[in-house]
């Protein structure tokens, strides 16, 4: 197997007839596949909005596989995109060149009381299960709401504390001790805060621009046995935010997130707060709920049941509809703590049931700024508030074949809404959604960090071959 330099396509040796334009592929531990079904399977992402069929798919079994193929692709000007579970929604991880399916790197190499070393393709849910079964019980300090995502994928974006973390922890990128990375030159590097720190900082939340994460040493913390979940409902923006701000500062509360829907539904907001504990003790309900305006629904569940609750909900939808193939023009942004309340009050006046859909969700996640230590992902400028909030409008089509105007309508909504978010509310993009960005938009997005990020790109991916789907450095 190799690459036809004149025809610009991957071919078998027999197809190329061993002509002078044939460049043979190096020996691999894993496999390089060219068949149509394998290539079509990685031609889109969760959004089903953008489609790019790659020349070939690498299923690596080692960091060496990735290194030799990146060197090969760099030499022949072939774009390379690493792929985890592809939970972006606007083609961020797609490429017409080579797609690396990192999920084939899926080992837990070590598991101790303070850290775990894992391959980038391991799912967070598998790490959580293994760490919780460890003696003593352990857990990552920050977990995304949906845990069937790869470690490498969420570390490349940021990894907000959707189901664990956010109040007293940073994002997932803030709890990484060390990485193994294959750079855009094909070098295999170990990096940390103290070793090649520029690469470490550029890769965590760096959207795959400077290297492909192949291993990570992750922090672990003690895990409690139980979770007490408090659910409160609201139809008033001011009252909801008053209780939200109370709960995120309240001692004894370990996690908070919220849901919102279009204003013609009741309730408009649902606030979810969780306190973790070990029996026979338990949370002080009276202290946690003191002064709140809404009466709570209270439920006690096991820690793992809480962690996997969003996974369970998504799996239920999968049984009802073809969830993975529905169209998802998501909108995801960071808002400063000082403007988020006015922001929600404004957009709630414009939302309709079509903006979210029967299978979608509006979501709000708080993050204490003091615990967000990495330069990437980008957060809003400091505004005097100790908090920043991710706001998601996770639009999902009701059918596999929505009406012809649905996609363009929602992309146009995202463009207009993001422009107002940035210009009037100080928001920045959380880059998993479907907001078309130009190179100029990306320069604005990175702000004062743009020159540092660009320098890292030139140092570690001088051929500009990695992750072209975002169009940050002029390709897309």
TrEMBL record:
Q: Give any Pfam family that matches.
A: FAD_binding_4
Which stretches make up the FAD-binding PCMH-type domain? 50-223
Cofactor(s) the record lists? FAD
Instruction: Please provide the record's keywords in A-Z order.
Output: FAD, Flavoprotein, Oxidoreductase
Molecular function (GO) terms for this protein are: cytokinin dehydrogenase activity; FAD binding
InterPro entries assigned = Cytok_DH_C_sf, Cytokinin_DH_FAD/cytokin-bd, FAD-bd_PCMH, FAD-bd_PCMH-like_sf, FAD-bd_PCMH_sub1, FAD-bd_PCMH_sub2, FAD-linked_Oxase-like_C, FAD-linked_Oxidoreductases_BP
Q: What is this protein called?
A: FAD-binding protein
Checking PROSITE patterns in the record gives: FAD_PCMH
What does the record list as GO biological process? Answer: cytokinin metabolic process
Q: Which family does it belong to?
A: Belongs to the oxygen-dependent FAD-linked oxidoreductase family.
């Amino acid at each position: 197997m190799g690459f036809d330099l004149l025809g610009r396509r991957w071919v078998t040796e027999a197809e190329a007839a061993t002509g002078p334009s044939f460049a043979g592929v190096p020996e691999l531990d894993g496999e390089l596949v060219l068949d149509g079904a394998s290539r079509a399977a990685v031609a889109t992402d969760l959004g089903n909005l953008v489609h790019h069929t790659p020349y070939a798919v690498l299923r690596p079994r080692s960091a060496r596989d990735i290194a030799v193929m990146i060197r090969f692709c760099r030499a022949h000007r072939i774009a390379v995109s690493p792929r985890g579970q592809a939970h972006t929604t606007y083609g961020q991880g797609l490429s017409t060149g080579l797609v690396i399916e990192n999920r084939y790197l899926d080992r837990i190499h070590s598991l101790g009381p303070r850290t775990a070393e894992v391959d980038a393709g391991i799912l967070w849910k598998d790490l959580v299960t293994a760490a919780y079964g460890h003696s003593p019980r352990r857990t990552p300090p920050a977990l995304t709401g949906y845990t069937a995502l790869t470690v490498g994928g969420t570390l490349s974006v940021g990894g907000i504390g959707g189901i664990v973390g956010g109040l007293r922890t940073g994002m997932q990128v803030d709890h990484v001790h060390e990485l193994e990375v294959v750079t855009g030159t094909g070098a295999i590097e170990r990096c940390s805060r103290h070793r090649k720190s520029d690469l470490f900082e550029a890769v965590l939340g760096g959207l795959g621009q400077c290297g492909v994460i192949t291993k990570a040493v992750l922090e672990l913390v003690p895990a409690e046995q139980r979770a007490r979940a408090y659910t409160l409902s609201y139809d008033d923006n001011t009252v909801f935010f008053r209780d939200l701000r109370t709960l995120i500062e309240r001692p004894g509360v370990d996690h908070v997130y919220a849901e919102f829907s279009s204003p013609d539904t009741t309730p408009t907001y649902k606030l979810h707060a969780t306190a973790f504990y070990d029996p026979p003790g338990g949370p002080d309900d009276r202290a946690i709920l003191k002064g709140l305006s809404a009466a709570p629904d209270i439920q006690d569940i096991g820690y793992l049941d809480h962690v996997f609750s969003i996974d369970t909900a998504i799996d239920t939808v999968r049984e009802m509809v073809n969830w993975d193939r529905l169209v998802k023009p998501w909108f995801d942004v960071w808002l400063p703590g000082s403007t988020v309340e006015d922001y929600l009050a404004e957009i709630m006046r414009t939302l309709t049931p079509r903006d979210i859909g029967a299978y979608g969700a509006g979501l709000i996640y708080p993050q204490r700024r003091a615990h967000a230590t990495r330069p990437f992902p980008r957060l809003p400028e400091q505004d005097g508030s100790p908090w920043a909030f991710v706001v998601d409008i996770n639009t999902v089509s009701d059918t596999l074949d929505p009406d012809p105007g649905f996609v363009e309508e929602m992309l146009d909504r995202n463009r207009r809404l993001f422009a107002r978010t940035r210009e009037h509310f100080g928001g920045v993009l959380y880059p998993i959604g479907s907001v078309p960005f130009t190179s100029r938009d990306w320069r604005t997005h990175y702000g004062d960090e743009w020159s540092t990020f660009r320098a890292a790109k030139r140092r570690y991916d001088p051929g500009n071959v990695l992750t072209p789907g975002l169009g940050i450095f002029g390709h897309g």
